[in-house]
From TrEMBL:
Chain segments annotated as transmembrane: none
Domain Fe/B12 periplasmic-binding residue range list: 50-300
Pfam families referenced in this protein's UniProt entry, alphabetically: CbiZ, Peripla_BP_2
Native source species: Desulfobacula phenolica
PROSITE patterns hit by this protein: FE_B12_PBP
Protein name: ABC-type Fe3+-hydroxamate transport system, substrate-binding protein
Length: 672
């Protein structure tokens, strides 16, 4: 329990901290008067340096504007969404930990309206606190401007706002070719024991309208309102979409009688999107509207003949390679058929031979690279093939047909990793992009099926001439190094995350350039050049995954659990313990943020992996560990840890581990 003395001490500390802060870089912008979503007027004396953010879409803005260094505390959910931020854990989004917030000594707290306990505790006399909520796209743009002013990043905020407005305008322009009677009825859903949808005043309905859909009207307002079966059938949606995290619940709910009797379910038109796009107005709202519109009206948005802008190069930035046969290397941002691509473009001094797993053996190549394809454009490629897009990309970048070879990826080229390894005068460079959030898979275990998200693309270049056999062997060497990196990072299979690490993504590609210089005929693991290829690729894959997905080998435990699709809420839901679920969730959040209990669960993850493979055959030693943890937590030696009965939702070891923690929590609670 908190004390008034501790609260008073915190207030004095924060007041002194604010007075000691240096003047901001924004040249007289402070003190700054800000009106928050609750219509409170705050006077911010200095640019905030220690911010606790409890609102995910504001966290996303701060990160997108390049100011994540000001954050000192985030919720468990944000630590999962933005694992590279590495901030203090301050409880869950729905129930923040006031003591943990206070320990970060914030000079600004950003909260949502329902964070009433936080708002009351950190009153105006203690610490500046902004209440932020968005109900419209215009609200989001306004709040981006505020964040830009607060953290001296107005230019970046303005650029992102402008980009979103352009994307929204582009979609609106294309939709001008769509007759009103052809527009589809669309609804966003949230499922559990009941079905909920956004209320009539929600930004989510504004997004549907912007994408050319017709949203429902329930005569109710709010982020999520219950919908009756009668209302559902009366609206008769033609498309249903939701948050990918809620996919299983939505699919199960819509199989029920009455709910399945609508056009969208009958036609299988149910789609799931990333939660940070569906559940908030993010800095990528224009991108999401374009994606949703393409899903709704594929023929209209995939047809390049219906583009409303001209193909063009927008800007470019240099990439340093230092290879004699390379004339120039750039990352080029360019527009093709209304979509914004980013291409790594390596121009050679003369024709090169290339071995590409995407295009095969190629000769006479004057340029090679890797191209980021946005999802709206990717949907068109999957429906109609990539040949047309490849030709458009080549032409846009200034190459004649057959002169440029590129791979394609959903990973942003801004997250390109360039790694050089050398030994004496021998050099190897790996250029890597990697995304492992959508279709990472364990070869030999997972089912083969094409999925669009996630790809690891690798370009191998050396200061040697690699003949055909060496180029082919380089692909084996690079593949082994890539898989080793994924295993070392504990990247999980997207399909069997509880039991298997991934070895690739299922859509990976490798390109090996012939090069120039002395000939190297062998590129296997026993050769020096093979060693350098492996080291460069391993480091490149590790760096690229960190840049694209925020995943590092030593990432936060909450992220590692999320990688396995393990949520504290779901684990607690499986408990037979007769305790308040929210009490258990809050206690678990605090425990897993402490090194001792975090290490126990981290150890359990490793033991679980080996037990599921059959490398560990007996668990009595682990039962002893669980007893020790329960006794330490509860202060009682006679409590026998319970195993969570998860009906196979949890592996055996993890059911025991979390059962031990909950047994200790409930025993400790009884003691008190």
């Amino acid at each position: 329990m908190r004390s008034d003395n501790r609260r008073l001490s915190l207030c004095f500390f924060l007041t002194g901290l604010i007075l000691m802060l240096p003047l901001p870089c924004s040249g007289g912008a402070f003190p700054l008067t800000v009106t928050d979503s609750a219509q409170n007027k705050l006077i911010i004396q200095k640019k905030p340096r220690r911010v606790v953010c409890l609102v995910p879409y504001i966290t996303e803005m701060i990160g997108a504007f390049g100011r994540e260094q000001v954050l000192v505390g985030l919720t468990r959910q944000d630590l999962v969404l933005y694992p590279s931020f590495r901030k203090n854990h301050v409880g869950g989004y729905f129930h923040p930990d006031i003591d943990a917030i206070a320990k970060t000594h914030p000079d600004l707290i950003i909260a949502a309206p329902f964070h009433k306990a936080v708002i009351q505790y950190f009153g105006p006399d203690c610490c500046p606190l902004m209440v932020m909520e968005t109900k419209s796209i215009a609200d989001a743009f306004s709040q981006m401007e505020i964040i830009g002013q607060l953290f001296d990043c107005e230019k970046k905020a303005s650029e992102i706002i402008q980009r979103n407005r352009e994307q929204l305008a582009l979609v609106k322009s294309r939709l001008g070719n769509l007759p009103v009677q052809q527009r589809k009825r669309v609804v966003r859903v949230m499922a559990g024991t009941t079905l909920s949808c956004p209320g009539d005043d929600s930004f989510q309905n504004e997004i549907i309208t912007a994408a050319g859909g017709i949203p429902p009207k329930w005569e109710k307002n709010g982020f999520a309102v219950p919908v009756s079966q009668e209302q559902w059938q009366q609206f008769n949606p033609q498309m249903v979409y939701g948050c990918s995290r809620n996919e299983k619940a939505v699919q199960a709910f819509l199989k029920q009688d009455g709910w399945k009797d609508v056009a969208a379910v009958q036609n299988g038109f149910i789609r799931m999107f990333p939660c940070n796009l569906t559940c908030q107005v993010s800095t990528r709202v224009g991108y999401f509207v374009q994606w949703l519109a393409t899903v709704l009206y594929l023929d209209l948005f995939a047809d390049p003949e219906k583009a409303v802008t001209t193909n063009a190069v927008l800007d470019e930035s240099p990439v340093v390679l230092g290879l004699d046969y390379v004339k120039q290397a750039r990352v080029v941002r360019h527009r093709v058929a209304d979509s914004e691509y980013k291409s790594l473009v390596i121009r050679f001094n003369g024709p090169q031979e290339i071995l590409s797993t995407f295009e095969g053996n190629l000769t006479g190549i004057l340029g090679a690279g890797n191209t980021y394809v946005p999802m709206p454009a990717s949907l068109g490629h999957m429906a109609y093939g990539v040949t047309q897009a490849q030709e458009a990309i080549q032409k846009n970048l200034g190459f004649a047909k057959g002169e440029f070879s590129t791979m394609m990826t959903g990973a942003d080229m801004d997250n390109l990793a360039v790694v050089k390894k050398s030994f004496k005068d021998l050099e190897v460079t790996a250029l890597v992009t990697a995304g492992v959030k959508g279709n990472a898979m364990r070869m030999s275990k997972d089912t083969g099926q094409y999925f669009s998200h996630g790809t690891i693309n690798i370009i191998v270049m050396t200061n040697r001439t690699l003949p055909p056999n060496a180029r082919a062997r380089s692909i084996i060497t690079a593949t082994e190094a890539k898989s080793a990196a994924l295993l070392d990072m504990d990247v999980r299979s997207s399909y069997t995350p509880l039991t298997h690490r991934a070895t690739g993504t299922g859509t990976d590609n490798i390109m090996v350039v012939q090069g120039d210089g002395p000939v190297e005929r062998f590129a296997g693991g026993h050769s020096k050049i093979g060693e350098l290829i492996a080291k460069a690729v391993h480091a490149g894959v590790t760096q690229a995954i960190l840049k694209q997905n925020g995943l590092a080998p030593d990432r936060d435990l909450f992220q590692r659990l999320a990688d396995r699709k393990l949520r504290i809420e779901d684990i607690v839901e499986h408990c037979a313990f007769d305790y308040d679920k929210q009490f258990l969730i809050s206690r678990m959040e605090k425990l897993l943020a402490t090194p001792y209990y975090a290490s126990f669960i981290e150890s359990s993850l490793s033991i679980s992996d080996d037990y599921e493979k059959g490398l560990i055959k007996e668990l009595s030693f682990f039962d002893t560990m669980c007893c020790s943890v329960t006794a330490r937590l509860s202060g009682k030696k006679d409590i026998r840890p319970e195993t969570i009965d998860s009906s196979n939702a949890l592996p055996v070891v993890m059911a025991k581990a979390f059962g031990a923690l909950i047994s200790g929590i409930t025993g400790d609670h009884n003691k008190k």
